[in-house]
Design goal:
The chain is mainly β and about 70 residues long.
Length: about 70
């Protein structure tokens, strides 16, 4: 299987702090280029999030199985 390489640009996040029970939290828009036309649903991404809760550092990572785009 050949690994594809795409270009990713991150726009600034909408904030740095999340209040208890806050809806929608913090968002960050991405711009992904280099995806061949019609192959968007095959793109898979990994993410890593670092944050502090109760002054303790936490880190989570995972996969986005499909972006669901054309």
């Amino acid at each position: 299987m050949k690994t594809q390489v795409y270009s990713l640009k991150l726009k600034p996040q909408t904030g740095r702090n999340i209040a208890p029970n806050q809806r929608n939290g913090i968002e960050q828009e991405i711009i992904l280029t280099g995806v061949p036309l019609g192959k968007g649903s095959t793109v898979k991404m990994r993410y890593k999030v670092s944050y502090q809760r109760d002054a303790q550092p936490h880190e989570e990572q995972g996969n986005v199985p499909s972006l669901g785009i054309a």
